[in-house]
Amino acid sequence: RNFQILARRPQRPLYTSAWEPRGTNGVSCSLRRLTRFGKVESTDKMGFQNIWYSHPRKYGQGSRSCRACSNRHGLIRKYGLNICRQCFREYAADIGFK
């Protein structure tokens, strides 16, 4: 019976890796490697991959995007819509503006 439950479980990849900042100001990074049995191996490395998308996005245009299409331009924030103008024209009747 346990074998049938395990057989139906989707297979996950054997190894996955992710770069995550560690320490103060992201100075040192750690390559965390998830092994097949869920153990985490980490090695301290510093490389160019740790700087991708590392700028803080808490305010400003870069922190907000359309909830429908993820566009960052022409965003309508009034009434908490957070939707770009093109999507607003498409969904205005559904929202209740026309």
UniProtKB/TrEMBL annotation:
Stretches of the chain forming a coiled coil according to its record: none
A Pfam short name: Ribosomal_S14
Gene3D superfamilies xrefs: 30s Ribosomal Protein S14, Chain N (4.10.830.10)
Alphabetical UniProt keywords: Endoplasmic reticulum, Ribonucleoprotein, Ribosomal protein, Zinc
Molecular-function GO terms, alphabetical: structural constituent of ribosome; zinc ion binding
NCBIfam families associated with the record: PRK05766.1 (NF004424)
The name this protein goes by in its record: Small ribosomal subunit protein uS14
Protein's organism: Trichomalopsis sarcophagae
